[in-house]
């Protein structure tokens, strides 16, 4: 059946109009849903729950094997290494790692020995200490992946020492630059530097500041004492020095909160035992603290060093709590439970790991949205081109047919 050109042109216009209407409707629906989901996510709590609420009753379980308190000798003889130039343990008072008047290079340190339970994943460690009679070079609070450098008496020969260096990945047992610990000790080191050689300003020399370092590879990473940590090859996770209040004879507490479930780190301080925690640092990105590669343990320690300035550093207490999903201290946390626990227990308002893990997905969705819009616009453009070309073609066809009719009417 023959269709006139006008009928064909009308049908194509109808099809084009229908396609444009459907495309506009789809674009409107897509962006409406996208905006609604964005508004829902912005007004939702820290965790978006697409499933029923989790059992968020995370238990804070005291790890007595990783605690150190009076009477000190009971736990030190079983669960801790300690040593140094002249460490003084007063069983019912404190552990003096260094003392005012000690020679330059004097040091003291204490670190868990791994005999007890040192497989700690999600945990909080609190250190209680005080300085008196001035301050020394500084102090390092470590969560280390290695502790066998403390067994000096076991190395009967240079061969034994070389074997230890190989087995530990390169730890230098003779070095004490990390405030009494080897400068390339793998793990986390929260360093409070109390005396700065690289300044002529007398006030700045005694301005304490804190830096947080992570050593992963002992062959590559190390803390540089001579530059006050400035040219260390270790990863310094805080961008700028964190300034602290000058230390007096008051009792100070430092707490380190680490959640392996979400690679989250938080460091707080409390001055004069006033009960008020001041946040010093909170991670903005994933931060993984190394474990011992053989035992999966992390060893808790404190070390102090005497430099050009001297003082008495006393360790009063170490308390370690782990976070588990049962009272026996064995249930591991999921990332969702860890995030929610951080929000409820410590008031962490910013999602860290979950937002980081979803960043890539969000980016992909964003790219996909604009790619889809581009494809739709391209289809609309191609449709319009098709309509224009078809219209031009039909116009030419009508002209040829008119010419053919005109030719047929000529006289014979």
Automatic annotation (TrEMBL):
One of its GO terms (molecular function) is D-mannose binding. The gene is NCAS0B07930. Keywords: Membrane, Transmembrane, Transmembrane helix. The chain crosses the membrane at residues 12-31, 363-389. InterPro entries: ConA-like_dom_sf, Intracellular_Lectin-GPT. GO terms for cellular component: COPII-coated ER to Golgi transport vesicle; endoplasmic reticulum membrane; endoplasmic reticulum-Golgi intermediate compartment; Golgi membrane; nuclear envelope. GO terms for biological process: endoplasmic reticulum to Golgi vesicle-mediated transport. It comes from Naumovozyma castellii. This is L-type lectin-like domain-containing protein.
